[in-house]
């Protein structure tokens, strides 16, 4: 097990792919053989971003996306064929980067976290840990994000205190036990394919 504490003051900011806003890059991975780190070489990314006005999402062919509101409420994602209801915070929605999506903000601006991965390169999950309890983590990379205030977790007997918006990046070669002891956290999980 390798555990790395990512401090919010060290996160980087970058423009959305479509230029419509700015996201905070919390953690990511790129193809090792890629000459440069860009959208084409991206394997996965965990990021947060404010959505302050209705507008289109970036077109991201070949990318699977998970999204969750962590601040505010009332977000709905609309595509020509369906709606994704995120009106209640800490609800996860899954969609593809090819979908034409426009946001509707029913109760003002929101803050969201996104976990995205190159299709075929990784399987991803995104869940809210709201109540103290334990869960088994499979081998892979896991990101525990302190979404609202501080939180305390235990991983294989070792305790970690995360300040608001900090993230614990955990790389596991084998399954491990995670316990949320206090606070509220968002858990992003990335499992390489193949």
TrEMBL record:
Pfam families documented for this protein: HutD
Superkingdom classification of source: Bacteria
Species the sequence originates in: Bradyrhizobium nanningense
Name listed for the protein in its UniProt record: HutD-family protein
